[in-house]
Specification:
alpha/beta, globular, 321 residues, 38% helix, 13 helices, 7-stranded parallel β-sheet, Rossmann fold, single chain, 2 domains, 4-stranded parallel β-sheet, 18% strand
Length: 321
């Protein structure tokens, strides 16, 4: 069987939750047939493709700058944002991006090796690929983006545009995902709760899983060490790190002054990097291997207030005992 696998990132466990899901799915598919991988990846991340190279017949890289180009100005006035939101049924994930480059790369890969199965991860990619044979396509939503948008909106302060603009964007994203799930394609999600929200009979749950590592290879636990792990330019992870460091850690340190947290994750935004004190809060940035940090942590904390699907980082912690 020939399989075309389209991914929004390199399928690598080093990315975090979505990378683990992509890698495990790709590995399972590679056991069933020959896989051609089309992955969106910036040049600085293309070393991550080495993790999945051996699983694929061919790896095709689509540069985001060409395959997922932003449309229009980087910033818009408030009134321009209102107008954009009101004049289109499309959600922001679709109307502000030109993905014709991605469509071209996927079409060329399919022409070189006509697939028996097309596997697409994330609804925004599937919504950008026209003229697919949906009867032999699986769309892995992973999670529901509109739920993430709603949770992030509910966590921020209320202001003018939240009365109309942001709820409208959430509604349009929900409508987009529901319409996409009605296509003849098979649709998968990582949680039963999200499957029930879509409510269609052909939607299936594809649960997340993690590998169980060898025990005791990275030394003993370090007392009073907490670990917060995740991709630190992903908005729900950024919110969780701020929430923990500002609201929870001070309370813990009132009881145990020696408590300290390591924030481990790729590409921390400036606000996260600024949390680093070197004593009670340490921001490591990108690390080559997370295993030593898991092994040395006494407690793994997952203070996520937003996000969707299931928490892969919880599975990772449980897998390590």
């Amino acid at each position: 069987m020939k399989i075309l696998f389209v991914a929004p990132y390199p399928p690598s466990p080093r990315i975090g939750g979505i990378g683990i899901r992509l890698y495990n799915t790709l590995r399972a598919l590679a056991a069933k047939g020959e896989v051609t991988l089309v992955a969106l990846s910036e040049k600085k991340h293309q070393d991550l493709l080495e993790d999945c190279q051996s699983l694929c017949r061919e790896v095709v890289v689509a540069e985001p700058a060409e395959a997922n180009r932003p449309l229009g100005p980087a910033t818009r006035s408030r009134w321009a944002s209102y107008w954009e939101a009101l004049r289109s049924w499309l959600p922001a994930s679709q109307r502000f991006r030109d993905r014709s480059g991605l469509v071209r790369v996927v079409r060329q890969a399919a022409e070189r090796c006509p697939p028996d199965l097309i596997w697409i991860t994330k609804s925004w990619i599937a919504g950008s690929l026209p003229n697919l044979d949906w009867s032999r396509t699986v769309v892995d939503f992973d999670d529901l983006e509109y739920r993430i948008m709603w949770r992030m909106m509910s966590l921020s302060h209320w202001y003018g545009s939240k009365i109309v603009l942001e709820p409208l964007e959430v509604w349009k994203q929900r409508r987009f995902e529901q319409r996409l799930s009605r296509l003849p394609a098979r649709v998968t999600l990582c949680s039963e709760r999200d499957r029930r929200r879509l409510g269609h009979g052909h939607v299936r749950v594809l649960p997340n899983c993690v590998a169980i590592p060898a025990a005791g290879t990275h030394g003993p636990e370090i007392p009073h060490r907490l670990l917060l792990i995740g991709k630190m330019n992903y908005e729900p992870n950024v919110d969780s790190a701020f929430f923990f460091c500002r609201e929870i850690l001070p309370l813990i340190r009132q009881v145990e002054p020696r408590a300290h947290v390591l924030i481990v994750g790729r590409e921390p935004v400036e606000e996260i990097a600024a949390l680093h004190t070197g004593t009670d809060i340490v921001v490591t940035g990108t690390v080559e291997d997370v295993e030593p940090y898991f092994a040395q942590a006494e407690i793994v904390v997952v203070p996520l207030r937003a996000g969707g699907g299931t928490r892969v980082k919880i599975l990772e912690a449980l897998a390590r005992g």
